[in-house]
Amino acid sequence: MVLLPRLTAFAEAYPDIVLDVVTVTGPVDLVAGEFDAGIQLGEYIQKDMIAVRVTQELRLAVIGSPGYFSSRSIPRKPKDLNDHRCIGLRLPGGPYRWEFEKGRKAVTVGVNGPLIIDDTHLVIQAALAGAGLGLAFEEQVAEYVAKRRLIRVLEDWTPPIPGFFMYYPSRQHQPAALSALTNALRAS
Question: The pTM is what?
């Protein structure tokens, strides 16, 4: 969602820079791992890092396939998820407890189901296959929802979240390649 849409333009503008990309689902110590930078949701970035916004605010979407809903009711409130098979999402620290908010009311649900997956792309594929309700970013599922391959539920319970940031340790002399990447990814 962050790097790939801008990769071609970056590679054309900076043909001598090689990006060595590593994907990790848990916390990363950039200094110990000898990484120049990372990309993470804002809430997971350590306070001593420089953070640059690389996406606008995001929204999560609860989705299920038409086949899944052919024999099940559509949840109207977060607590209705207790009556559904849900595809868990593993984040750093363990399975994510789904968080919802509507007006001043905040609700957290520890969902249950047949799978716990650490990749939202796989969650989407499992939801498309009818394995249960999944949670992914709105942007990731918009096309499936538009084509009616997925049904979005509880939309009024999913407020925006801060989004992704590129982060890196404070340095006296930032490498030119990192400055170029920061400028290319910076959210407008």
Answer: 0.81
